[in-house]
Design brief:
By secondary structure, this protein is an alpha/beta fold. The chain is 37% helix and 15% strand. The chain contains 13 helices and 15 strands. The chain has an eight-stranded mixed sheet. Strands 10-12-15-13 form a four-stranded antiparallel sheet. Strands 7-6-11 form a three-stranded antiparallel sheet, with no helix packed on it.
Length: 380
């Protein structure tokens, strides 16, 4: 059979119309009508499940969005920024762009996301060591699963630390009825080729005010001051999304809800078909809050003491069956590039990393594919 990929992009059919408009009008450079339209589409879509208006700035990548969030928060050399350890490196790398130091905080076992208990421990300890609070907290919605946001926001408020929601993997995930990325000081979106929707490559920063959004746009377009010649008071960046890519995004917005519903359906199938397999656990969301993950990727834990095989053995078996899978992110506090960074760990992320595997979940994955994949998993 043809290969079953982890999360392929899927075109809804209208993307080419918007892209063709860009070519017909010669708007193939960054900015243009598609960019404005895409930002408006996103803002209106988010505002259906959010408190207040949402102002979205389309950017070249989710990483750029995190970076500009830190720029907006005034993060600089000598500052510390708390970051979830169990995540992709793009969550942490922008901290170093600003000359700041990442402080990694481990996960709690239910959500796989930042442990509120360890978060407060880290804040108190950094105050004791440095004499001041960390400048920001970056909390991740790992694989689309909402963290314990209520507890995290309460701690952040207690110490007056802004929260950046890295919801790059969580477009469509809800926490207490609110879209991921709309509750913190800033929120992050990603439109990479494997995400909920794609612009080929791209991302966005979610702001609460037009003033913040305008300031983000200023920094994202090389921080050019309003003079008749090129004048710059601040370091700027070339981070805006192209009009062609935004055209793809406009078409994708017409099918985003279908993509979200499909991934939730895929997750339900995995849960149903793997329910009675000893040692294989399908990742479920936290049960003590009103959360609705988008299930960007459905993930499992493989306990080798019960199954007789490791996640690595299973990944090889799936690969031989023409199925792509992927290990869980390696925690940032274990990455060589961040050796020596302050870390507050409890062993949870390391255990998840040692047992976790991501399974095909994209819009191109069929029910028949899931039956085939789960049969491979059940094979001993």
């Amino acid at each position: 059979m043809s290969k079953i990929w982890l999360s392929l992009a899927h075109m809804g059919g209208k993307e080419q119309d918007y892209v063709q408009q860009a070519f017909d009008t010669n708007w193939v450079v960054p900015l243009g009508p598609n960019v404005d339209g895409f930002e408006d589409d996103l803002s209106k879509w988010l505002s259906k499940h959010a408190e207040g208006e949402q102002h979205v700035v389309a950017l070249s990548a989710g990483t750029a969005a995190i970076h500009l969030a830190l720029v907006m928060l005034g993060v600089g050399r000598g500052d510390e920024v708390i970051c979830q350890s169990l995540t992709f490196s793009a969550s942490a790398n922008p901290i170093t762009y600003q000359g700041a130091t990442p402080v990694f905080v481990d996960s709690e076992p239910d959500s796989w996301n930042m442990s509120p208990e360890l978060l407060e421990t880290a804040i108190k300890d950094r105050i004791r060591i440095t004499g001041r609070c960390p400048k920001a907290i970056i909390v991740v919605y790992l694989y689309g699963n909402p963290p314990r946001m209520k507890e995290i926001f309460a701690i952040a408020k207690r110490y007056n630390i802004p929260v950046v929601e890295d919801s790059a993997e969580a477009m469509g995930s809800l926490y207490d009825g609110n879209h991921a990325g709309t509750m913190g000081t800033f929120g992050i979106m990603s439109f990479n080729g494997n995400k909920m929707i794609t612009t080929s490559g791209g991302g966005a920063l979610i702001c609460h005010t037009k003033e913040d959004a305008d300031r983000v746009k200023f920094f994202a377009t090389q921080a050019r001051e309003p003079y008749p010649y090129y004048q710059h008071k601040y370091i700027g960046y070339n981070y805006r999304l192209s009009n062609v890519s935004a055209g793809i995004g406009r078409g994708q917005m017409l099918v985003v809800d279908d993509h979200i519903n499909h991934r939730r359906h895929i997750h339900r199938l995995y849960k149903e078909l793997l329910a009675d397999v000893p040692g294989v656990t399908v990742k479920e969301p936290i049960a003590d809050a009103a959360v609705e993950p988008n299930y960007w990727l459905s993930c499992i834990l493989v306990d080798p003491q019960q199954t007789g095989f490791t996640y690595s053995d299973l990944q090889q078996r799936l690969g031989e069956g023409n199925v792509e899978s992927r290990p869980i992110w390696k925690p940032m506090h274990l990455q060589p590039v961040f050796q020596g960074a302050p870390s507050y760990v409890n062993g949870v992320s390391e255990q998840i990393f040692s047992q976790g595997l991501c399974l095909p979940s994209g819009p191109m994955v069929s029910d028949e594919n899931i039956v085939y994949i789960t049969d491979l998993i059940k094979r001993h």
